[in-house]
Each structure stands twice: as C-alpha cells, then as structure tokens.
Write a structure and sequence with these properties.
Blueprint lengths: L4 E2 L5 H9 L1 H4 L2 E3 L2 E3 L2 E7 L3 E8 L2 E9 L11 E10 L4 E5 L6 E4 L21 H4 L5 E8 L8 E3 L4 E2 L3 E4 L5 E3 L5 H14 L5 E4 L8 H22 L6 E5 L3 H9 L4 E6 L2 H14 L7 E3 L9 H4 L2 H8 L3 E3 L5 E6 L3 E7 L9 H23 L3 E6 L6 H15 L6 E3 L7 E6 L6 H4 L20
Parallel strand pairs: 1-16, 4-17, 9-11, 14-15, 17-18, 21-22
Antiparallel strand pairs: 2-3, 4-5, 5-6, 7-8, 7-10, 7-16, 8-9, 10-11, 12-13, 13-15, 19-20, 20-21, 22-24, 23-24
Helix pairs in contact: 1-5, 4-5, 6-7, 10-11
Length: 457
C-alpha cells in the first residue's frame, strides 16, 4: 500500500517570503507580549488530544482527537477507492475506501469525461450508472465524516488546502474569499492570475489578506508538488488505499485559524509543541513566538483549569443554558433535528412585556449561535423564541441571530421567524457533536434517558 502523503511544510522560499512581510502581518504587541482576541489551548492526554479555542476567556470551539479517529475523523483525506455497487434509484454509489463502513458518492459529486460515457442521453447529464460501475477504481476525497450508521460522504472534486490558497486539481475553479474587502480582492486577483498553475483551479482564502506574490507562489508550488505525489501514488495499485492524510488535529486547527488576532497557542505536550512550532515557523514565521509550551511539571494547575476551559466544557454538556439576564435556553436533540427553547426564567424586565421578551430574545440569539458552534450541532435546528407581537422586533432578532452566526465558519442557512415564533435553520454537519464525542450511550436505557418499570403479567 502506498505511504500516505501528509500536509508538507513549505520550503525555504515560503519562509523567506513570509519573513519579508512579518512586520506587516505579525500582529500587535503590548509590553513585549502579543495582543489578540483569540487563544488556542491544546491539552494532550494518553487517550486523546483536546483543542480549545478561546475568544477572550470564553470557550467558543472544542475539538477532540483520538487514535481511533483514523477511521472516523477522516474529513479531507484523499483515497483510492473501489466502487462496490451503484444504486440508480438513489443516484449514489457505495465506495470501499478501506474504512469499516463503505463511503457514499452522490451523483452531483461525480466527475467524468463526457467522451468516455457510453449511451448518454442526447441532452442533459448522464445517469450515475453510465459513469460508474462496480469494481471501478476512482480517486476521491472525504467531505463528511462517518456519523452513526452513515458512512463517510465523498467527492471526486478533490481539493488541497494550503496556508493562503486551496488548489483544485484538474479544474477551472477559481475564486477569492468574500470576507475580504473589494480592494484586497482586486489585488489578490492580479497576483493569482500570474501564479495559477496550468490545468488547475485556485481558491484564495481569507488568510491571504496582505500576503505577497512570493508567498502565494510558494504556497501554490508546494500544493502542486503535493498533488503530483498523490496522483502518482493513485496509479500504483488497484485496491482501496489512503493517499493523503490531513495533519494532526492541532496542526489542522492552527492551519485554519492562526493569524495575527491570536495572542497565543499554548500546548502542554513538548513533542507536539515542537511539531506545531516548526509548522508555524515555516508557514508564518512572524507568529512562531506565539506558540508556547505549558509545562505541567512547573505550572501549578492543568492547562484547562488555568484557562477555565474545563468548567465551560461541563456547562456545554448541560441541557440547560442560563442567560446573563436570568433567561435560559433548553437544548434537546432528536434523531431528525435539534430543538432549542427560549425562556424568560427570572428575567422580569422593567418596562413592559414586549420589551422584556424582545431583550431576552436578543440575548438568546447571541447565545444560541455560540452554543451551536461550541457543541458543534449540525443538521436541522428549530429555535422557539418567545412570541413577539411587533414585527420589527422579530426582524431584529432574526438579524441578530444571522450576525452572530456570521462568525461561525461552518455554513448555516437561517429563515425568518414564523408567526409561531419559530426559526428554522440548518448548520452543515461535518462530524459528531460535542456531546457525542465526550459520551457513551447508556447501555441500560439505550440513550432514551428513562428506564421503564418492570411490567407484571
């Protein structure tokens, strides 16, 4: 089996280019210490690695990585797969990628050459059974981890993320992050036109803000080399095989997150600290000194106690969440969706009922967005806000919810508040949520939360 390619560290050219713009993108300092809104804490245990992302002192995201995750946390990995069977009625194919459960590839994620399709209709797209056949070997990438009884989801539109750009091999795709302002987008478009590799697509990430042409070119060259390695390995053999593995969780989170707004990355394991510092030193040397080692032998408190992560995690596992003004949220998960109920609780207000309810709902909208992100809740979500009579107030609460969700990288879609005070929304489900990650289903009640009395005949 070929050795999987891992996310390589850029070469000297990338480091030199990054150093040249270090003063521009290195962030602010006060009294010799970095200043930033965010911080990453990494706690390494024998059985798992936990990563906490803090905004100020507030926990906003939490990730867990275990050794067993090699078969469950595979989002982004690239495989050589073998088609097991094709289901025309489902417009999907099941693919063996070497994991315990076969992965699923839907019709919309299949890539093909129209000249190779036999018996295709005169107009329109060919059917999936005309493109794929059992036993066929394909190159594919995981877009969603296996969850519960469902296998991983695949695409043949492979992409390789770098520090500043995402390479889309054998594609004409191109784009620039919409989070960048118009002037920066124009500047980057001029650079991208000169560094785009022939035959491949490029998507410029938000992290490219302020990046020089040399930095972008080095990032692109590294990704192209990585892709050539993967493509070569894909032809060496026929069976299912892992061709590219996403890096360790800590490195992956730092690749996606770290910028000048982070004041520190604190790690309590020395070997992981060295690995992360080497990675940051190569891709973003001006921020390398923000990677710090938290020595458990010297520090009086464990890292998660020192930064109040542990207590916030316990609260995130509760069914009920209290709001500062006295109101509360009740979060219930079902097979089909997650339901969030908003209550006023002890919040009695000071003016009138409509104003009290409106203020409570505004506060709840902000907290709902934070809880969805922290608990990594995906799928369909229904929020039962307290009824508001004034239409303008309902619109303001919906706007506040959308604004709060804009800070979440995971894609969401929110609909307006209905006459019943309900908000229907979706949040992309990529992996299991926080509760599923940190819990085991009860063997007595099988997750129902109740144990039935013995019935006498």
């Amino acid at each position: 089996m070929p050795v999987p390619v891992t996310a390589a560290i850029p070469g000297a050219a990338g480091a030199a280019g990054a150093a040249a713009t270090g003063s521009r993108r290195g962030g602010r300092e006060r009294r010799g210490k970095a200043v930033g809104r965010y911080q990453i804490c990494v706690h390494v245990r024998p059985e798992m690695t936990e990563i906490a992302l803090l905004e100020g002192r507030t926990l906003v995201e939490h990730y867990v990585s275990r050794a067993a995750d090699d078969t469950t946390q595979i989002d982004g990995n690239i495989y050589r797969g073998r088609v097991q069977n094709v289901l025309p009625g489902m417009e999907a194919a099941f693919v063996d990628i070497g994991t315990p459960k076969n992965a699923v590839l839907y019709r919309g994620d299949v890539r093909y050459d129209r000249d190779d399709v036999e018996g295709r209709p005169a107009g329109g797209e060919p059917r999936i059974e005309q493109v794929l056949r059992p036993g066929q070997t394909i190159l594919c990438q995981v877009t969603k981890n296996p969850i519960g009884a469902k296998g991983a989801r695949l695409t043949q539109e492979v992409s390789l993320p770098g520090r500043f750009v995402v390479l889309v091999p054998d594609s004409t795709a191109n784009g620039i992050s919409k989070r960048l302002d118009d002037a920066e987008r124009k500047r980057l478009r001029r650079i991208v036109d000169s560094v785009r590799p022939e035959g491949h697509g490029l998507i410029v990430r938000t992290a490219a803000a302020g990046a020089s042409a040399e930095e972008l070119r080095a990032d692109v060259e590294r990704l192209v080399g990585q892709w050539e390695q993967i493509a070569a390995q894909s032809t060496r053999g026929q069976g299912p095989a892992l061709l590219y593995r996403e890096p360790a969780s800590a490195v992956r989170v730092i690749r996606e997150e770290l910028n000048s707004e982070y004041r520190a990355v604190v790690i309590d394991d020395y070997s992981l600290y060295e690995e992360v510092r080497a990675y940051v030193g190569a891709v973003n040397p001006e921020l390398a000194d923000r990677v710090e080692y938290y020595d458990p032998a010297v520090e009086p408190l464990p890292i998660f106690e020192r930064y109040h992560v542990h207590e916030q995690l316990h609260k995130a596992l509760d069914r009920k969440v209290y709001l500062p003004s006295g109101g509360s949220l009740v979060i219930d998960r079902t097979e089909a969706l997650t339901v969030i109920d908003v209550n006023t609780g002890k919040n009695v207000g000071s003016t009138n009922l409509e104003e009290t309810v409106f203020r409570n709902n505004l506060e709840a909208a902000e907290e709902v967005a934070r809880q969805l992100r922290l608990r990594d809740i995906g799928g369909i979500i229904v929020i039962d806000f307290i009824d508001m009579e004034v239409r303008e107030n309902r619109d303001k609460v919906a706007s506040a919810l959308r604004a709060a969700l804009a800070r979440d990288k995971t894609r969401t879609q929110v609909f307006d508040i209905s006459e019943l005070g309900l908000v229907e929304m979706t949040r992309k489900r990529v992996s299991e949520g926080l509760i599923e990650t940190l819990s085991t289903t009860c063997t007595v009640c099988e997750g129902r939360g109740i144990v039935f009395d013995q019935l006498e005949l």
